[in-house]
Design a protein that fits this description.
This protein has about 525 residues and is α+β, with helices and mostly antiparallel strands. The protein is built from twelve helices and 26 strands.
Length: about 525
């Protein structure tokens, strides 16, 4: 199961509700249902009842775990409550809205007409849903050094590192950060580091923080040099000219030694609280996720007219290419306002000259390669197949570089307004591996990510190599990728699972990739979300 990205708080208000009470106005209440399977909805919460009101603003908020990589279908039902039973079937129904959590957060404020169960409008009734992320996204940037630390090693000097602990509500110390180890140095300067303010002290500047200084040992028996306690109120005054300094005290030495002063001084030159934007800050602040598809039309897929071909258009179902497009596209489409997606093919001979192309639009319109929605991509793919000849080789770099040109233009913008997601669906062994490695190294510097889904039963070891999970991808010349932007999965691994599981697997890392890119460049969302 993917990690929950965050929690979202939803506020609800309505206008022009149907009036179901004869002598007074309706007494509305909102019930929230979540979709758990095809036609099965489960109620997870409800608001208070607002008496005699056709324009209620509900005080009770809904708190929901938000997962980017899932399509989370929600249903908001409005009822006129005139009795004390919990069952809603005996209350008058005033209308409902079905939507996804993705639609709500990408709009930040979503207003829609309420519908009756026959899908007709519920009079002039509307519902408005406001979304807000529940978070404290402040982090503390530290620069720390120490001097005259005790030497704990017989051969050489101590190898010091710091551990930061926060005091929990139960009164115990919980470690929240460990610095790097500085080898063989009694006067170390650690690299700058950051700790989320929530982790360090729950946002309470007067809550105690304990710092332990240890001498690192390879066998795990690290020796305590000394400890001190402080809080953010004291730390935040630190400056280069006037550092915040603390004596490291070793309790055992203090007990044993007369005239013991300390085991060294730890000095903070910087302790600065800054705001770091989250994925939802960018999405709610107007950042667009642009979805582009690249489809492999090489000969190894097999003759599309044969039922054994990966491109065979089964009259009674989808092939693996179509299923992969739907699985990923269904999630991403909620975050793209115009729902127009460029779709390309590669590795085919195309009319009229039958030249091999590695970046041809599925609709054959170079000026306008866009397809309307995910269904538009599927339709363009079906129309394209009979008009091309499957050929080869399997070259990825042209389409990666093609999308990279759009991402490079977006990178010139002063705010975090565009991010590109390229989905490549392929059946096999990549031919231009060196060129593709270089293209990915270049793309890692741009606002884009690449998802590769392998269909069929080929050897996908080269694809695993491009996904930098096991180590940093390097260009042929040895240049390392500045961030990991490729996610590869073989389709067959998920062929017997619900399509949602494939989407969760390939999209789970995407929010962090978006945040990593924009935060590293200190780019703000186009419309600053409310703090």
């Amino acid at each position: 199961m993917a990690d929950c990205v965050t929690k979202v708080e939803l506020s609800i208000c309505c206008e022009n509700l149907l009036d179901k009470d004869v002598t007074s106005k309706s007494d509305p209440m909102c019930a929230l249902h979540i979709n758990v399977s095809e036609n099965q909805w489960v109620e997870i919460d409800r608001t208070e009842r607002v008496k005699n009101c056709l324009t209620p603003k509900f005080a009770k908020k809904f708190l929901i775990d938000y997962y980017f990589e899932q399509v989370q279908k929600l249903k908001f039902g409005i009822y006129d409550i005139d009795n004390k039973t919990i069952d809603l079937s005996d209350d008058d129904f005033l209308g409902e809205l079905e939507c996804t959590l993705g639609q709500i957060v990408s709009s930040r404020k979503l207003t829609r007409p309420l519908l009756l169960r026959n899908k007709r409008p519920a009079g002039k009734g509307t519902i408005t849903i406001y979304a807000e992320e529940v978070k404290d996204n402040r982090v503390v940037n530290f620069e720390a050094q120490a001097r005259k630390l005790d030497n704990k090693d017989f051969f050489g000097k101590s190898d010091p590192y710091l551990e930061f602990h926060k005091l929990t509500a139960e009164g115990r110390w919980q470690m929240v950060h460990r610095t790097e180890v500085i080898k063989n140095n009694l006067n170390p300067s650690w690299k700058p580091f950051k700790i989320p303010l929530r982790s360090l002290c729950n946002g309470d500047f007067d809550r105690n923080i304990k710092v332990d200084c240890y001498d690192y040992d390879n066998d795990g028996s690290h020796d305590l040099i000394g400890i001190f306690e402080t809080n953010m109120t004291k730390l935040q005054d630190a400056t280069y000219s006037s550092p915040a300094e603390f004596e490291c005290i070793n309790p055992k030495k203090k007990q044993k030694k007369k005239g013991y002063k300390n085991s060294g001084i730890v000095s903070f030159k910087l302790c600065k609280v800054v705001k770091e934007y989250t994925f939802l800050d960018y999405i709610m602040g107007g950042c667009q996720l642009n979805f582009i598809v690249g489809i492999d039309f090489t000969g190894s897929n097999g003759d599309p007219r044969s039922p054994n071909s990966l491109h065979y258009l089964n009259p009674s179902g989808f092939n693996e290419y179509q299923m992969a497009i739907w699985a990923v596209g269904a999630v991403i489409q909620d975050y793209d306002t115009d729902k127009l997606f460029p779709a390309f093919g590669f590795g085919a001979q195309i009319p009229p000259n039958w030249q091999v192309s590695h970046e041809f639009p599925l609709n054959f319109n170079l000026q306008n390669p866009f397809c309307g929605g995910v269904q538009g991509i599927i339709d363009a793919y079906r129309n394209c197949l009979p008009q091309v000849r499957l050929y080869g080789p399997t070259n990825f770099s042209p389409i990666i570089n093609h999308v990279g040109r759009f991402a490079a233009a977006a990178a010139q913008q002063p705010k975090a307004s565009q991010y590109y997601i390229l989905l490549i669906i392929t059946d096999g062994v990549i031919t231009d591996l060196d060129e593709t490695r270089q293209a990915i190294i270049n793309a890692a510097k741009l606002p884009m990510s690449i998802i590769i889904i392998g269909v069929g039963g080929a050897d996908f070891s080269a694809m695993e190599f491009l996904d930098g999970d096991d180590g940093v991808l390097k260009s042929p010349a040895g240049e390392p990728a500045i961030r990991d932007i490729v996610q590869f999965v073989p389709f067959r691994k998920f062929q017997n699972a619900p399509k949602e599981v494939l989407a969760q697997s390939v999209l789970a890392e995407l929010p962090q990739q978006v945040v990593c890119y924009f935060n590293s460049r200190k780019l703000q969302p186009p419309n600053e979300p409310p703090s």
